[in-house]
Design goal:
- It is a single chain.
- With 293 residues, the chain is an alpha+beta fold.
- The chain has three domains: 9-54, Uridine Diphospho-n-acetylenolpyruvylglucosamine Reductase, domain 2 (2-Layer Sandwich), CATH 3.30.43; 64-174, 2-Layer Sandwich (Uridine Diphospho-n-acetylenolpyruvylglucosamine Reductase, domain 3), CATH 3.30.465.10; 179-287, 2-Layer Sandwich (Enolase-like, domain 1), CATH 3.30.390.
- Helices cover 35% and strands 26% of the residues.
- Helix 11 (242-255) runs antiparallel to helix 12 (266-287).
- Bound molecules: flavin-adenine dinucleotide.
- The site of flavin-adenine dinucleotide (FAD) has 30 residues, from strand 2, helix 2, helix 6, helix 7 and strand 10.
Length: 293
């Protein structure tokens, strides 16, 4: 396996429009953001490109903004910046949970939120988190801008609803008024490695401490994040306590059908997924102010 990439040209663009134009003109071109997934693929020649279009210098393409009822994250916002952002952590603790658990500080300081989502590696942690948050992605294509729901964006392993000429430009997370909290937990393949399984959970409790709404998403077990609809349906209207959560988590064992591979058996994946659902829901509910054992 070689450790030097093939020959390619490199261009630094100053706007997403420019990136979109070049992408549609050059067939074998690719966006370069933080390079943390792309560069290793080029170095090992698993992938070859003719042209890299660097979007990391586009003014205003990163950053995070609090709007009236939403949090707006620019695609080139670094995972490390997200980890350190107190605004994000306060509104959506799930963002801090996930960002701080990704790889190591070196990778986090380079890797971007948009790159983590666009790459759609089943082992990546931000895809299930954004699906749990029901985030909206703004995508710029040759025909202009469109907004896509995160749940419809992830199609499979390394596959999204974006075409070759599309660029993810920003992510919007809408804020609800009620008692909403969230948590992300994961089990790594080995220390410092990608997730074997992860669970992202967003819960809303009503005034009596019952589950009003929830979205529980399993990451890394299937090619794309999976909303655990059976879990959410079970929780609805029930008291947010440890019995309810335990029962909801136990449903996972019968409701998913993972495959065995080199890293883990199907049974182990079922078991871990169930435990992670329990842990994510417990943490999210505690963060809502409910004192559960
Ligand atoms: C050692 C190591 C460990 C890691 N561990 C984890 C982990 O535990 N959890 C985790 O979630 N991730 C992990 N990662 C992946 C890391 O988070 C990457 O940074 C991320 O997946 C890609 O982001 P990037 O900005 O580096 O994208 P790049 O590598 O620059 O690009 C990745 C792909 O996305 C495309 N792309 C990038 N930005 C856009 C955009 N705005 N619009 C359209 N296409 C775009 C590129 O064309 C390319 O195909 C790890 C990486 C390494 C090297």
């Amino acid at each position: 396996m070689g450790m030097t990439p093939g020959n390619f040209d490199y261009v630094r663009v100053s706007s997403f429009r420019e990136a979109a134009r070049i992408l549609s003109e050059e067939e074998n071109s690719k966006i370069l953001a933080g390079g943390q997934s792309l560069i290793p693929l080029l170095k090992t020649r698993i992938m070859n490109v003719d042209l890299l279009i660097d979007i990391s210098g586009i003014k205003g393409s990163g950053g995070i903004r609090q709007e009236k009822k939403s949090l707006e994250i620019g695609a080139t916002y670094r995972v490390g910046e997200l980890e350190g952002n107190s605004l994000a952590a306060e509104s959506f603790p799930i963002l801090h949970d996930a960002a701080s658990s990704i790889a190591d500080p070196l990778v986090r300081n380079m890797g971007t939120v948009g790159g983590n989502l666009a790459h759609a590696d089943p082992g990546n942690d931000l895809p299930p988190v954004m699906v749990a948050l029901n985030a909206e992605f703004t995508v710029l294509g040759p025909k202009g801008e469109r907004v896509e729901r995160s749940a419809a964006f992830f199609k499979g392993a390394f596959s999204t609803s974006m075409d070759h000429s599309d660029t993810l430009t920003s992510i919007r997370i809408n804020q609800k008024d009620g008692n909403v909290s969230s948590a992300f937990v994961k089990q790594r393949k080995s220390a410092g490695d990608f997730s074997l399984a992860s669970v992202a959970s967003v819960v809303e409790l009503d005034d009596s401490g019952n589950f009003k709404d929830s979205r529980t998403v399993l990451g890394s077990v299937f090619p794309a994040p999976m909303i655990l609809e059976g879990v959410d349906a079970y929780l609805k209207g029930k008291k947010a306590n440890s019995e309810t959560i335990k029962k909801a988590a136990s449903l996972v064992r019968t409701q998913i059908n993972p495959e065995s591979d080199f890293f883990a058996s199907a049974d182990y994946r079922r078991h871990v997924s169930s435990l992670l659902v329990n842990n994510a829901l417990t943490t999210a509910v505690r963060r809502s102010g409910v004192n559960i054992a």
